[in-house]
Amino acid sequence: MVSFTYESVFFFDIDNCLYPPTVGIDLMMKERIYAFAREVGLDHADVAKTCGQYYRDYGLSVRGLIKHHHIDPRAFNEKVDGSLPLEEVIKCDPELRQMIQRVKARKWAFTNAGLEHAERVLKCLGVRDLFEGITYCDYSEHNFACKPERPAYEKAMQEAGARDPTKCFFVDDSAKNVAMAKEFGWTAVHVSPHAVDEPAGDYKIDRIHQLPSVLPQLFE
Fold it and tell me: Which PANTHER family does the protein's record reference (predicted)?
């Protein structure tokens, strides 16, 4: 059994993980990405297909837009992430807060979003103060890494000061991100309301609040 000390770090994804997909942020985000892509010249008829392909190829649509259309990442952040009405749709979650407080490890947020977006979501949920830090994507950084790329996990460990992968824990709604975390040596939990034939990681839960049921030894 793993010894849970403060050397252990629990990495939490944010979007569609700490809150359920039914909140609708994904749809709002897609609408804004498509609108931005049309503004910078993508064909109106193909914008959804092109942005979807960029997401599959590069992990984030914005990376494809930067690479192939030389967009201003600051403008993207302002018009897409920055325009989301997060405070209107994401509510404070006392149950989530209590659960995270019980985790017998250091808590670190690990997201493919930008820092401002990550901070806003965590504050809306009422849990920002529970996390020591956030590993995020800086859209203005040349060739920035994102999940599920291995360098993103290396960056998260470095920023969190984690040295031993066997003392790292991770929860995410993306099966690809969870699979890479497991490959990287972390204990990985996939959170998704959808049934799966085989878990992408070590465990599968339907909602984040069920985390103690699969890792009871990690909770006080």
Answer: PHOSPHATE METABOLISM PROTEIN 8-RELATED
Task: Tell me if residue 90 falls in helix, strand or coil.
Answer: coil
Cβ density class 140-158: b for 16+ within 10 Å, e for less? eeeebbbbbbeebbebbbe
Structurally, how many domains does the chain consist of?
2
Nearest to 107 by CA among 210, 213, 4: 4
Q: Is residue 121 scored above 50 in pLDDT?
A: yes
Q: How far is CA 169 from its chain centroid?
A: 14
Q: Under 8 Å CB-to-CB from 178, ≥6 apart: which residues?
A: 170, 172, 188, 189, 190, 200, 201
Same domain, 99 and 193: yes
pTM above 0.85, yes or no: yes
pLDDT in tens, 138-182: 998 988 999 999 999 999 999 999 999 999 999 999 999 999 999
C-alpha span between 89 and 86 (Å, rounded): 5
Residue 195 shares a structural domain with residue 96: yes
CATH number at residue 41: 1.10.150.450
In a shared domain, residues 14 and 111: yes
**Which amino acid makes up residue 202?**
D
- DSSP E strand boundaries for 42-137: 106-110, 133-135
Angle formed by the axes of helices 61-69 and 47-58, nearest 10°: 100
Quick one: 202 and 94 in the same domain? yes
